[in-house]
TrEMBL record:
This is ATP-binding cassette domain-containing protein. Belongs to the ABC transporter superfamily. SUPFAM superfamilies: MOP-like (SSF50331), P-loop containing nucleoside triphosphate hydrolases (SSF52540). GO terms for cellular component: ATP-binding cassette (ABC) transporter complex. Keywords: ATP-binding, Cell inner membrane, Cell membrane, Membrane, Nucleotide-binding, Translocase, Transport. PANTHER family: SPERMIDINE/PUTRESCINE IMPORT ATP-BINDING PROTEIN POTA, THIAMINE IMPORT ATP-BINDING PROTEIN THIQ. It comes from the Bacteria. InterPro entries: AAA+_ATPase, ABC_SmlMolc_Importer, ABC_transporter-like_ATP-bd, ABC_transporter-like_CS, Mo/tungstate-bd_C_term_dom, P-loop_NTPase, Transp-assoc_OB_typ2.
Length: 354
């Protein structure tokens, strides 16, 4: 069941288009991340959904009801901000109770709901503490509990982990996702961090320049990007521009420098003489120089804990490869690169210049 629908949503600031007729459906209980660089329109989209920004054109529907012109307090949403926005003069209990008091919920029910919310985010022992006495992660959990205690239909989060250090971000990433699954609330999450979007989401919506470039599962966005720009934004991407030897019903055969051929199991667009294909660093295997499909030379080697990263000079340009720590290639070594054609992804020609 669709919980949130955006239909041809437009937002202009003067003559500048922040959102260019975007459309999106978010299903009940789904966790959807809006991912993109600064200025792409992701936070503007969230603010329009919340009612903090008026839309220029289009429609926003919750459960098939048009709420485009409703005030934020009438939209049945919970909101978590990057800054937490906690009241510094209120305890944890008082921060959680405030929204319920504004809604004139009976005192006995407020006490019950606040207690449940604190237990949900594991903050019961901190009920009487003020925000300045809490860690960043604890403050973020208070902000989450405050958004959920009003029992909204939809939870909106705007870069909620941006102010935390790396270790806390990792912890809170798992905490938020587990909590969302337990509660089952429809969630829209804004981030510029690819790892957050990929690990937390049911679907990732990649945005550039006020438009949706791709909306798909994390696996599809990573392994089957809709464009070269998406491929390069989400993780490291090697793009090989290769001549087409032939195209038939079985796919497209391309030729590597040196003469080795690869059959891509997708036909190339008609009329093309070359095909741009994507290979992620972990989808390329290094071997001895005489066994590979493409010769190369190790330019840089970086130890990264669980794996090793290589920059390899080839006739296709520099390629980035990750391999196990059990491999012992050194800078300056001649190597061979091997490709699994089934894992190569052809990219549309339309964005090859971007």
């Amino acid at each position: 069941m669709t919980e949130v629908s955006l239909r041809s949503l437009q937002k202009f600031y003067g003559k500048t288009a922040a959102l260019k007729a975007i459309s999106l459906d978010v299903n009940h209980g789904e966790f959807v991340s809006l991912l993109g660089p600064s200025g792409c329109g992701k936070s503007t989209t969230l603010k329009c959904i919340a009612g903090f920004e008026d839309i220029t054109d289009g429609r926003i529907c919750f459960d098939n009801k048009d709420i485009s012109r409703k005030l934020p307090e009438d939209r049945d949403i919970g909101m978590v901000f990057q800054s937490y926005a906690l009241f510094p003069h209120m305890t944890v209990t008082q921060n959680l109770a405030f929204g319920l008091e504004m809604r004139h919920v009976p005192k006995a029910e407020i006490a019950q709901r606040v207690a449940r919310a604190m237990e949900m985010v594991q903050l019961t022992p901190y009920a009487d503490r003020y925000p300045k006495k809490l860690s960043g992660g604890q403050q973020q959990r208070v902000a989450l509990a405050r958004a959920l205690v009003i029992e909204p239909a939809i939870l909106l989060l705007d870069e909620p982990l941006a102010n935390l250090d790396a270790k806390l971000r990792d912890e809170m990433r798992g905490f938020i996702r587990d909590l969302q699954k337990r509660v089952g609330i429809t969630t829209i999450y804004v981030t510029h961090d690819q790892n957050e979007a990929m690990t937390m989401s049911d679907r990732v919506v990649v945005m550039f320049d006020g438009e949706i470039a791709q909306a798909a599962t994390p696996e599809d966005v990573y392994n089957r990007p809709a464009s070269e720009r998406v491929a390069r934004f989400v993780g490291n991407a090697n793009i090989l521009d290769l001549p087409i030897a032939r195209t038939d019903a079985q796919g497209t055969t391309v030729t590597l420098p040196g003469g080795a051929t690869l059959q891509i199991t997708r036909p190339a667009p008609s009329g093309q003489s070359r095909l741009r294909v994507m290979a992620r660093p972990e989808q390329i295997t290094l071997t001895s120089a005489d066994l590979g499909q493409l010769p190369g030379r190790i330019e840089k080697r970086y130890f990264s804990g669980g794996h090793v990263e290589y920059s390899v000079a080839t006739d296709c340009g520099p390629l980035f490869v990750t391999g196990p720590t059990t491999q012992h290639f050194a800078e300056g070594d001649s190597v061979g690169l091997c490709f699994d054609p089934a894992r190569l992804w052809p990219l549309p020609d339309a964005e090859s210049a971007q």
